[in-house]
Design a protein that fits this description.
about 100 residues; alpha+beta; 5-stranded antiparallel sheet; 2 helices; DUF3846; DUF3846 domain-containing protein
């Protein structure tokens, strides 16, 4: 099991344990894409690109210096495939708090 952080639009993020990629697809509602934010080194964001403009927007990200939006569900995972640590969760909370 791997510890991830799931953020839905207009809701607080929650910790979840998943067993693999099938569960990631369920959490984001379909095929997923991996994106990163310049301010969260070592953390990847799993999103459903098909949600862009269809689902509610969740929060903005900065990737390679460019502003973008995450739409629909987002799953934060450790970039190396391991479980998120308490420090990682704290960093993500601070990141999300700064996003409003």
């Amino acid at each position: 099991m791997i510890t991830v952080y799931v953020k839905l639009p207009h809701e607080n993020a929650v910790v979840r344990e998943i067993a693999g990629t099938d569960e990631l697809q369920e959490l984001v509602g379909g095929d997923y894409e991996v994106v990163e934010d310049d301010h969260l080194e070592g953390i990847s964001l799993i999103v459903n690109e098909d949600a862009r403009g269809v689902e509610a927007n969740n929060f903005p990200i900065t990737s390679d210096g460019f502003l973008d939006w995450v739409y629909g569900p987002c799953v934060f995972v450790k970039a190396n495939g391991r479980s998120l640590t308490a420090d990682d969760l704290s960093r993500i909370d601070q990141f999300l708090s700064a996003k409003g």
